[in-house]
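Action item from last week, closing it out:
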Amino acid sequence: MRFKLIMLTIFACNILCAQEVKNYINIYKSIGVSDYSKEKYIISKYRFSSIKKELKPYLKDTTTAVRQKAYYLLYKKGIVLRSDEKNEVVNILIEGCNDKNGGIVGSIFDHLNEFNAKDFNKNAKQSINTLLSKKKMFHRKKLAMLAGNVGAGREAMQKKLLDKNISYETKWSYSLALARQGSAKHINYCMSQINEISVNNDLIAYIIPDLVYTRQREMIDFCINIVFKDSKDCYSPNPDKPEYILCAYRVLELIAPVIKNFPYKIDDTGTLDTDDYDKALSIARKWFTDNPNYTILQ
């Protein structure tokens, strides 16, 4: 009797989930406006198996926004699941990277980077390897960096780097990913590309985040050297106060999250959690001087 009651409860929940998901997606398709409180309710109330079943048809919907929303809801459910179910979500999301819309593919890569490396099983890593081998691929840099983060695609990237016709952008992205995986050859290549570059706004905006991504000491040391420079070579991020500022301030914001026991954190806006940047810079410089063997968080 108890077993029968449990089965009836599960059956009823599945029906409710189907109704909730279908109604929500149809409304979203009609008006194009997200209801995040409703999404949160669906994700928290229903089991993954039910949500997965109901969202599956929408992953192939002809409307781009609907497909994107379906992948988003799967990601939001997946990020709070136990490990074995996370593996399944990750594999579904990776399959979605074959979507014909570049916007969807880009957002899926962003979702995948929210998972841990352990959530990528053998099948997921092989699928990443297959994506890396494709001649045409949206957001190849995001793909390469995902591969670097989860330890996938080494052979595919190394093979691609042998191609004499490879673009500089792809070569840089693949080299960063292999550097992230600890390849001394590619760490040296990346360093050779930046050692002669002047410290300026473009370096901080486009190159330093790439170096921080690798989590390699040579590259983090390069960033820390900029922290000790006193020349004002960067633009202020404040549009109401256009002026040149120390690049050190912006570098601190980029390296703070990856240095163990660093004296400052990053707030929700992505800026250093302090009201006094001059004081923070002084403290950070002393901290690095006192901690030359700092630990990089992986």
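Closing note: Strands lie at 234-235, 244-245.
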